[in-house]
From TrEMBL, chain A:
The lineage of its organism: Bacteria, Bacillati, Actinomycetota, Actinomycetes, Micrococcales. This is Fe-S cluster assembly protein SufD. One of its GO terms (biological process) is iron-sulfur cluster assembly. PANTHER family: PROTEIN ABCI7, CHLOROPLASTIC. Belongs to the iron-sulfur cluster assembly SufBD family. It comes from Micrococcus terreus. InterPro entries: Fe-S_cluster_assembly_SufBD, SUF_FeS_clus_asmbl_SufBD_core, SUF_FeS_clus_asmbl_SufBD_sf, SUF_FeS_clus_asmbl_SufD. Residues 1-28 are annotated as: Disordered. Residues 190-416 form the SUF system FeS cluster assembly SufBD core domain.
TrEMBL record, chain B:
The keyword ATP-binding applies. It comes from Micrococcus terreus. Belongs to the ABC transporter superfamily. Ycf16 family. This is Fe-S cluster assembly ATP-binding protein. The lineage of its organism: Bacteria, Bacillati, Actinomycetota, Actinomycetes, Micrococcales. InterPro entries: AAA+_ATPase, ABC_transporter-like_ATP-bd, FeS-cluster_ATPase_SufC, P-loop_NTPase.
Length: 446, 254
């Protein structure tokens, strides 16, 4: 067994070889680095799979391992998107986008019995704390606005699309700046596989913060659409605070129009299995998307996030940062970041990064950044992934200021997690999440 | 008075081709209130000496000793050394995302003093020290060193020096990357710390220009992991005129 104690395991970067991707790293030469030099005119499906604590780390596996090879030659642009369930065959688990997911733990959300079945359980309740000026509606599935942004791109999302009865639509009218966050509580009480649909529309030049908190227990496949119109600004915080038994698959897709800004912060720590697929699709030039995420997996939890940023129009900017902490036997996290810069998307500036911190033995973090670049006329494109124990240089710095090692470790972990929490920008939500992370950390023997 | 004593120190680092000796028998005694400048060409081992005093795990002491008033420093962990009164102003301060300066400074001060500082005095001390070093007040709410420029990082190192009040400070190329104004501000900070706390200082530098602001009592020339020559401030003047050529030739001929 390879001793990975105190070593930053892996770093993969296409940008700035002189600047460590993680502060404090790089000088020691301890990382087993595989550098993929991304020519800006080439397609670079960089695939990095970073090892579990107990597995050995073979740098070559990151680029050309048996699993990684499957990624080559398949472009994210070719992925099927459709409302028809039959377009997504019954899953075998060998599909590229399901290979990390334990299908038997999906509790039937993937409709394993065939295309005639539906998700018929009681969907979690949806409560929206209304604000002045915004509209909250419960509509039937025939409402024409539904599906204007989201088209399912996997079987579970298609199952949800074909199963939901009613949807919740939240509309922020043009020009309205909503001062207080719009708080949406999704509360589950049932254990049968169910479907849910939400749509948030932010009109031209309007601004809003939306916080979606998932609580209780549920088995739910969810489609969430964010229609961010010209010049609008939307910050979404999606908190997965489920009880231990919950199973949650959520496709959260945004259409980001001309000069709009979209920020999505995904915080996952509850549930048995949570699989998020956040997507930001640029539909007009000059827009900006930030996708952030924090996941904290305990023993036995499977937390998966597969995000997609689709640069289909010129001069848009995207920034992706996901951070994970893992502790306990069979805690498993998956992060796959697909960024596609299409031929039309000249002037794109994008960066994506995933960092995982392994707090105990027996945990496994998979991390796969995929950057596809179809035009050379871009501002910048980079990706990075790092999975490891502590950043020893950070520990050293804090200890050199008299702070005992155990306290320094806690500061580093808190800091690691806080970086994402700080992105939310809503004081009480940040405060509550900080306290929850403290509780999570208390069970850790750092 | 306190004394930091380094005796016949040999230090190696692990490289791909096995261990490599960087320090080859360094002896140096620094008393509180004294300023020693350690000068030398790049690669002579100056920064290794600094990191070894602080206890960076990369550096292995193969023989020799470092003592602080007779206590064995090499037996202490990194944090114990800091609490014993040693401070290293780092050449490349580390960024710590998610940890605010305010939180960090208070946590470190509490650890070093063994008790939390009085809230009222502490905030005032931090504020006035930041003012004196011309650090923007908003830095208190920013994360430690994150996104700071090279010069800002150096100021923040000296801010800590002033607030933590160590017995001995090792300044590892604090002058590198600073413009003239920043160099003056930072030097004044070091001088204040020295006057107020009778601090002993090991000033590690490649260039003589910082010595216009911080006056050394002793100057040591470091070449190839050893002290090649020691003297008073006049040695620095000579280096300013002649550079390190004289010493490099000596090494080559040895």
């Amino acid at each position: 067994m390879t001793d990975t104690q105190n070593i930053t395991l892996d770093e993969l970067s296409t940008e700035g070889a002189g600047t460590p991707v993680i502060p404090g790293m790089g000088e020691e030469g301890e990382q087993l680095a595989t550098e993929l030099t991304a020519g800006t005119d080439a397609t670079v499906p960089g695939s990095a799979e970073t090892g579990a604590v107990e597995s050995h780390v073979d740098p070559s596996a990151k680029v050309s391992g048996a699993d990684g090879r499957a990624a080559f030659g398949t472009s994210r642009a070719d992925r099927i998107s459709s409302r028809e369930l039959t377009d997504f065959p019954v899953l075998t688990g060998r599909e590229e986008d399901w290979r990390f997911t334990p299908l038997q733990r999906l509790a039937g959300l993937h409709l394993p019995d065939g295309d005639q079945s539906r998700l018929t359980g009681t969907a979690p309740s949806v409560q929206v704390q209304a604000q002045d000026g915004i509209t909250v509606e419960t509509v039937g599935r025939e409402d024409a606005r539904l599906g204007s942004v989201l088209t399912p791109d996997d079987r579970v999302s298609a199952a949800a699309w074909n199963s939901f009865e009613q949807a919740t639509v939240v509309t922020v009218p043009a020009e309205l700046e909503v001062g207080e966050p719009i708080r949406i509580t999704v509360e589950g009480t049932a254990a049968e596989a169910s479907a849910q649909h939400l749509l948030v529309v932010v009109g031209p030049h309007a601004r809003a913060d939306v916080v979606i908190t998932h609580r209780g227990s549920a088995v739910v496949a969810q489609n969430v659409e964010f229609d961010v119109q010209d010049g609008a600004g939307l910050t979404v915080t999606s908190i997965q605070a489920w009880e231990d038994s919950a199973v949650h698959a959520s496709a959260q897709q945004a259409a980001v129009a001309k000069d709009a800004t979209f920020k999505h912060v995904a915080i996952s720590y509850g549930g048995s299995l949570v699989r998020l697929t956040p997507t930001a699709r640029f539909t007009g030039p000059g827009a900006e998307s930030e996708l952030y995420g924090l996941y904290f997996a305990d023993a036995g939890q499977h937390l998966e996030q597969r995000l997609f940023v689709d640069h289909a129009v010129p001069n848009c900017t995207s920034n992706v940062l996901y951070k994970g902490a893992l502790q306990g036997q069979d805690a498993h996290t998956v992060w796959v970041g697909d960024v596609l810069i299409r031929k039309e998307a000249e002037g794109t500036d994008t960066y994506e990064k995933n960092q995982n911190l392994l707090l105990s033995d027996g945990a496994r973090a998979d991390s796969v950044p995929n950057l596809e670049i179809e035009t050379g006329v871009i501002e910048g494109a980079g990706h990075a992934s790092a999975t490891g124990r502590f950043d020893e240089e950070q520990l050293y710095y804090l200890m050199a200021r008299g702070i005992p090692e155990s306290e320094a470790r806690k500061l580093v972990v808190r800091g690691f997690l806080n970086e994402i929490i700080q992105k939310i920008g809503i004081e009480d939500v940040e405060q509550e999440l900080t306290e929850i992370m403290e509780t999570e950390l208390e069970v850790t023997q750092l | 008075m306190s004394t930091l004593e380094i005796k016949d120190l040999h230090v190696s680092i692990e490289t791909e081709n096995g261990p490599k000796e960087i320090l080859k028998g360094v002896s140096l005694t620094v008393n509180t209130g004294e300023t020693h400048a350690i000068m030398g060409p790049n690669g002579s081992g100056k920064s290794t000496l600094a990191a070894t005093i602080a206890g960076h795990p990369r550096y292995e002491v193969t023989s020799g000793s470092i003592t602080l008033d007779g206590e064995d420093v090499l037996e202490m962990d990194v944090d114990e050394r800091a609490r014993a009164g040693l401070f290293l102003a780092m050449q490349y301060p580390v960024e710590i995302p998610g940890v605010t300066m305010t939180n960090f400074l208070r946590t470190a001060k509490t650890a070093i003093d063994g008790e939390a500082p009085s809230l009222r005095h502490w905030s005032k001390d931090v504020k006035s020290a930041m003012e004196a070093l011309k650090i923007n007040p908003e830095f208190a709410n920013r994360n430690v060193n994150e996104g700071f420029s090279g010069g800002e990082k150096k100021r923040v190192e000296i801010l800590q020096l002033e607030l933590f009040k160590p017995k001995f400070a090792v300044l590892d190329e604090t002058d590198s990357g600073l413009d003239v104004d920043a160099l003056r501000v930072v030097s004044e900070g070091v001088n204040r710390a020295q006057e107020q706390n009778q601090m002993g200082t090991l000033l590690i530098t490649h260039y003589t220009r910082i010595l216009r602001y911080i006056k050394p009592d002793y100057v040591h020339v470091f070449v190839d992991g050893q002290v090649a020559e020691s003297g008073g401030p006049e040695l620095a003047d000579r280096l300013e005129n002649e550079g390190y050529v004289r010493f490099e030739t000596a090494t080559a001929g040895a």
